[in-house]
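Dear Dr. H.,

I hope your travels went smoothly. While you were away I took the liberty of generating a structure for the chain from your last submission, since the lab meeting agenda had it listed for discussion. I wanted you to have the full record in hand beforehand rather than looking at slides cold. The sequence, exactly as received, is reproduced here:
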Amino acid sequence: MTRIPLTPVGGEAPACAPQAPGPAKAGAAPPPPPSTGQLLLNGIFSENPVFRLALSLCPAVAVTTTVWNGIFLGVAVLLVQVLSSVTVALLHGRIHARVRIPAYTIIIAVWVSVIDMTLAATAPMLYAQVGLYVKLIVAFAIIISRLEVFASRYPALPSFFDGLGMGLGFLFALVTISALRELLGNGSLLGVRLVPGHPLLFFALPAGGFFTIALLMALFNALEARFAAGKGVQAAATGTHGGGHA
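The corresponding predicted structure, in token form, is as follows:
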């Protein structure tokens, strides 16, 4: 019986045959990390975890009734973010890709336990109010996302500054939200009474927390749009002057 060849006589597949995409290069090096200043500014402004990325909004609403609560949780997140980022960067290449998310979770949980016990021993009064949310840091999306996106691809030093920038951005967001809510909702700031009574009690409620975050997000978007427009005008002017000298 004559067998029908699966390819033409020349041995090459026909031009119309679909070609399977080649696998990505596993050892492809990531692009160079941004500068130290850029990493810090990204976390605080352009990639702020709360105002720009809208991550970890539940604790941002739950604990920001007073400035001290915001500072307490913000510092805890800052420490866990920095320590977890450096740990993952030091273990680069030793964590299998298939178990990287459970491994990241274990690393975060270890540092959360350390920070949780330290804060419980050093600041028991504040810990009694926000200690539950310190334990939940292990599930904060911002931390594990930075481990996956940055710390697992870059050395320890850039990962340290990336974690520091993101932690400072989260701390900045919590302090800003809590200051506005405490002032408008309770008439006080850092526990010091400035206005008698409760000027706008709505801001002390959970709904007021979401409303405050929405206002600050809108402010960040407006500032970013104005900044981008200013850079566009400056670039256009530079191009015009450059064209005139050509």
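Two observations you may find useful: Strands lie at 188-189, 192-193. Residues 36-178 form one domain.

With kind regards,
E. W.
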